Amino acid sequence: MFKYSNTNKRYYTLDYYYKTKFNSKVAKINLDGNFTCPNIDGKVGFGGCIYCLNGSSDSNKKKTLLEQFEEKKQIMLHKWPNSKLIGYFQANTNTYDKVEVLKEKYELILKQKDVIGLSIATRADAIDDDVLNYLEELNKKTYLTIELGLQTIHEKTSILINRCHTIQKLRKRNIDVVVHIINGLPYETKEMMIDTIRYLNKLDIQGIKIHMLSIVKGTKLESMYKTKPFKILSNEEYIDIVCDQLEYLNENIVIHRLTGDPLKEQLIAPKWILNKIDILNGIDKELKIRNTYQGIKKIENEQR
Ligand code: SF4
After folding, report:
1. Are 209 and 257 in contact (CB under 8 A)?
2. Which of the residues 58, 142, 272, 280 could staple to 235 if both were Cys, CB 3.0 to 4.6 A apart?
3. What is the DSSP letter of 2?
4. Cα–Cα distances in angstroms (integers) from residue 269 to residues 105, 149, 238, 265, 272, in the given order
5. Secondary structure, 3-state, 229-264
6. Distance between CA atoms of 36 and 216, rounded to whole angstroms?
7. How many of the other CB atoms lie within 10 Å of CB of 168?
8. Number of the ligand 1 atom closest to the C-alpha atom of 93
9. CATH 1.20.1070 correct for 14-303
10. What does the pLDDT look like over 179-208, one tens digit per residue?
11. Is 145 helix (H, G, I), strand (E, B) or coil?
């Protein structure tokens, strides 16, 4: 058994992390705070990232924050009675507004019963100094995590430097950072995806979400794929790559996700991504066959 797991997992699970930190099951309530994104509204770009459906895939859109919260809380508490709750601002760029607006939305959720913290998904270029100061203040009052999309290290250097710089600024203020990466981006090789993990080991991050690239209806990626199809990873290739990435990943980084959750009706490819349980079981099985676990290759490399 891996030291950061109380199940058969060979990696540092989020469930284990929460249970040891809060002495309780913790459920995340995903919320749409009705924010936009600098890559959608024209500040940085229009139309969003190639794989983005502009955060509109969620049924949350027409509900108030509290309605969303109550509805999802009931579902979570039915599954896991007595859980503690984390408000997860997920859709679009959740720091992209005036501090007063952020304050109003975040603190409304923090006031709700059993809420022990917030998780806020955003972009590195949407955290200015005013927001940073406010996040620092918030972090002193509650359990706060900032989620940043890094996607890959094989990007223009300036973009990468900016993202890493934001991570450093958050860490200087003692704020936990979770980074998202995507496997299977067009023309990336397995070695490049493993390099992304090696690079992340050098940054001071506390968690990671690993996603498989999914082609969703209505995105730029859909048109790219239809015009000039590129290779999409198979289920087996994805499992193999994730296991390699886990082996290289620092053992203290918490695994928040090992696959994505696209909606069936919006998904064009790959269809295997809908079988989330199969993917997770496949990863467990492969690590068991290899008799390896998170961080084993990083440890071996350091010992050389
Ligand atoms: S940063 Fe996020 S919300 Fe904005 S365009 Fe990219 S994927 Fe969409």
Report:
1. yes
2. 272
3. -
4. 35, 21, 14, 11, 8
5. CCCCCCHHHHHHHHHHHHHHCCCCCEEEECCCCCCH
6. 19
7. 11
8. 3
9. no
10. 999 999 998 999 999 999 999 999 999 999
11. strand
CB within 8 Å of 74: residues ≥ 6 apart: none
- Protein residue with its CA nearest to atom 3 in ligand 1: 92
3-class DSSP string for 66-101: HHHHHHHHHHHHHHCCCCEEEEEECCCCCCCCCHHH
Are 53 and 266 spatial neighbours (Cβ–Cβ below 8 Å)?
yes
Look at ligand 1, atom 5, and give the residue with the nearest C-alpha: 48
Mutate to test the pocket of ligand 1, among 56, 93, 120, 216 (most ligand atoms within 8 A of CB): 93
pLDDT class of 61 with cuts at 50, 70, 90: low
Residue 216 DSSP class: E
Residues in the ligand 1 pocket, defined by CB under 6 Å: 37, 39-40, 48-49, 52, 54-55, 92-93, 123, 149
Whether the link from the prior residue into 262 is cis, omega within 30° of 0, is no
**Residue 95, number of CB atoms within 10 A of its CB:** 22
- Residue 56 confidence class, pLDDT cut points 50, 70, 90: very low
Taking the C-alpha atoms of residue 10 and residue 285, their distance in angstroms, rounded to an integer, is 10
Q: How many CA atoms lie within 13 A of 95 on its CB side?
A: 23
Name the residue ranges covered by the structural domains of the chain: 14-303
